[in-house]
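At this stage, I needed to go through a protein sequence along with its fold in token form, as given directly below:
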Amino acid sequence: IDYEARRLTDAQMRTLSRLADLATQAMLMRRELIARSLSAHSDYEQSLSQSEERHRALVEDQAELVSQALPDGTLAYVNPAYARHFGKQPDAMVGDNLFDYVSPADRESVRSLVAEVLATGGSRLGENRMVEPDGAERWIAWTNTRQRDGQGRVLLHSVGRDVTVRKQAETRLSESERFVRLITDSLPVSIAYLDQERRYRF
């Protein structure tokens, strides 16, 4: 660059031509790199979409109750099994509060467990009664973990299964044991039960 117009020498022209070739090559390489990057990104997005579809199908086809809720209990997602348990469609339950479906007798303990899971990030098991549409109560065993969604929001992820039959069997067994103890405590004889190691069990 100068104040006066000048003519390029042959050597300068050759150098400028080589620089032009290098610039052209660099732009072509950049265009090819962008095209490859877009293609790879498209492949990645397609793979991610397929993976998400497979995961959603897996979650929605299973018999366990699956839900995601905000820290205040607002349901952000429920799978069909969860909705069927309460006689609703999944979309109709989103926005409801999960604590409204918990038996009033168990709400405080469930709130405490949820708060602990969200605060510590650990996984916690719990069992509580859920209220059916007809007002009946059924026992559900839950596995609760903390997750984050795509926006970084903290979510409670819960997977549950109906254990009402087991809980009813445990209650009947406990009542039976109390009945037997009541009878044996009333008898005017000495009764003892020892195990194989000769330890008193009763």
